[in-house]
C-alpha cells in the first residue's frame, strides 16, 4: 500500500510517500481501506519531536474514514463493506471519567491514517454518519471528540449561557462553536482576523471581537455582560482575561496551552468569583458515541478548509503550521 512514512524527526519534508506492507488484522482487530484522512496539530508535534512516546519509523495520522476490508477473529458485529469512522483514542479503559495510564492516540507510535489502509481495534470503529461525505467523516473524530468532551461532558453547557471560544479557526474551535450553538448557547469568539470572526458567525457564533484591537476585553464584556463558560486551548496571558470576563460561578475548561503557561496568575480573583477550572483532553468511548449521535441528531457538517492528495501531506501540514486554515484540512486517499 501507499503511505506517508516518517523516519526522522524534523520538518514537514521528512514525510515521504512509500510502498509498505498492507496490514493484516489480529484477533479483535479490523483493517480499513481509507477514503480520506484529516490533519491534527498533534501530527505537527510528532513531526517536530514535541510529543511523548514517539517511536519511528511510523505512519502519522489519527483521523480517518473508510470501508472495512478485513476482520479478525472474535468479532461478530462488524462486517467487510461496513462504512466506518475511527475513534483515535486507544486504551481508554472502563472508567469513562478518566483514561488509563497507557492511553495513547492512533498515529505514532502505532501506524496511523496517512495511508491507504489502517489496522485498529474493532472497538474503535463506529458507523459513518450517513449525512457526511467521506471528507467530512474523516475530519470529525479527534477534534469532534475533544470539543464534545470539553464543551458538553466537562463544560456542561446549557441553553442561554454565554460561551467564549478564544482563537477561533482551528478544527476543535469550529466544532466548539457548532456544538454550543446547537445546544442554544450564545457563542462568542475571538481572533486576530476579521475574516475568521465572520466565518464563525456564519455557522453559529453570535458575535466576535478582534483581540489585536485596543480595549477588546472591554468590548467583549459590553457585548456579553460576562461569560458563563470559556473553553480554551491558548492559555498564556489570555487565561487571565478569561478569569476577568467570567461571571461569579462560571467555568473555564482548558484543553491546551499553545501560548504556554499562565504567568503571574492572580488566584484571589478566581477565588472571589468562585470560578471552576477544569482540565479536558480527547474523550472516552462513551463521549465518542455520544458525539457521533449528537452530530447526526443536529445534522452538523464539519467545517472543511482544504483537501490535499495523500502525497501532498507535507504542504498540508505547512498550511496548518502557519495558521492559514479555517476548519479541518483533509487528505484524499488514493484507491489504487
Could you characterize what this model shows?
- This protein is α/β, with parallel strands linked by helices.
- The chain folds into two domains: 2-142 and 300-332, Alpha-Beta Complex (Quinone Oxidoreductase, Chain A, domain 1), CATH 3.90.180; 156-279, NAD(P)-binding Rossmann-like Domain (Rossmann fold, 3-Layer(aba) Sandwich).
- It contains ten helices and 17 strands.
- Helix 3 (141-154) crosses helix 4.
- The radius of gyration is 20 Å and the shape is globular.
- It starts with a strand and ends with a strand.
- 46% of the residues are buried.
- Residues 10-331 form the Enoyl reductase (ER) domain.
- It comes from Oceanobacillus neutriphilus.
- It holds the Pfam family ADH_zinc_N.
- This is Alcohol dehydrogenase.
Break the fold down into its secondary structure elements and pairings:
Blueprint: E1 2-6, E2 15-19, E3 29-38, H1 41-47, E4 63-71, E5 83-86, E6 89-90, E7 104-105, E8 117-121, E9 125-127, H2 134-139, H3 141-154, E10 162-165, H4 171-182, E11 186-191, H5 194-202, E12 207-210, H6 216-224, E13 227-232, H7 237-245, E14 246-254, H8 267-272, E15 276-279, H9 285-297, E16 304-309, H10 313-321, E17 328-332
Parallel strand pairs: 10-11, 10-13, 11-12, 13-14, 14-15, 16-17
Antiparallel strand pairs: 1-2, 3-4, 3-8, 3-17, 4-5, 5-9, 6-7
Helix pairs in contact: 3-4, 3-9
Domain Enoyl reductase (ER): 10-331
Pfam family, one: ADH_zinc_N
Protein name: Alcohol dehydrogenase
Amino acid at each position: 500500500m501507499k503511505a506517508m512514512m516518517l523516519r526522522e524527526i524534523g520538518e514537514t519534508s521528512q514525510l515521504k510517500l512509500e510502498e509498505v506492507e498492507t496490514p493484516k488484522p489480529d484477533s479483535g482487530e479490523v483493517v480499513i481501506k481509507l477514503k480520506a484522512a484529516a490533519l491534527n496539530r498533534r501530527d505537527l508535534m510528532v513531526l517536530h519531536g514535541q510529543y511523548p512516546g514517539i517511536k519511528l519509523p511510523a505512519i502519522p495520522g489519527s483521523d480517518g474514514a473508510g470501508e472495512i476490508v478485513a476482520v479478525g477473529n472474535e468479532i461478530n458485529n462488524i462486517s467487510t463493506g461496513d462504512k466506518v469512522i475511527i475513534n483515535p483514542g486507544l486504551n481508554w479503559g472502563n472508567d469513562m471519567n478518566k483514561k488509563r495510564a497507557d492511553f495513547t492516540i492512533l498515529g505514532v507510535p502505532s501506524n496511523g491514517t496517512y495511508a491507504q489502509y489502517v489496522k485498529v481495534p474493532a472497538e474503535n470503529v463506529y458507523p459513518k454518519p450517513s449525512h457526511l461525505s467521506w471528507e467530512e467523516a474523516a475530519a470529525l473524530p479527534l477534534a469532534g471528540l475533544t470539543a464534545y468532551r470539553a464543551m458538553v461532558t466537562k463544560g456542561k453547557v446549557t441553553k442561554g449561557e454565554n460561551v467564549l471560544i478564544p482563537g477561533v479557526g482551528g478544527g476543535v474551535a469550529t466544532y466548539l462553536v457548532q456544538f454550543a450553538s446547537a445546544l442554544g448557547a450564545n457563542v462568542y469568539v475571538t481572533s486576530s482576523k476579521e475574516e475568521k470572526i465572520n466565518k464563525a458567525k456564519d455557522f453559529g457564533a453570535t458575535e466576535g471581537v478582534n483581540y489585536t484591537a485596543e480595549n477588546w476585553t472591554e468590548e467583549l464584556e459590553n457585548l456579553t455582560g460576562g461569560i458563563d463558560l470559556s473553553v480554551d486551548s491558548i492559555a498564556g496571558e489570555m487565561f487571565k482575561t478569561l478569569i476577568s470576563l467570567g461571571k461569579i460561578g462560571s467555568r473555564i475548561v482548558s484543553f491546551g496551552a499553545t501560548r504556554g503557561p499562565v504567568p503571574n496568575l492572580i488566584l484571589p480573583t478566581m477565588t472571589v468569583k468562585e470560578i471552576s477550572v477544569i482540565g479536558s483532553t480527547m474523550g472516552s468511548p462513551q463521549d465518542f458515541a455520544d458525539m457521533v449521535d449528537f452530530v447526526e441528531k443536529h445534522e452538523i457538517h464539519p467545517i472543511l478548509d482544504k483537501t490535499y492528495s495523500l502525497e501532498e501531506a507535507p504542504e498540508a501540514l505547512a498550511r496548518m503550521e502557519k495558521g492559514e486554515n479555517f476548519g479541518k484540512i483533509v487528505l484524499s486517499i488514493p484507491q489504487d
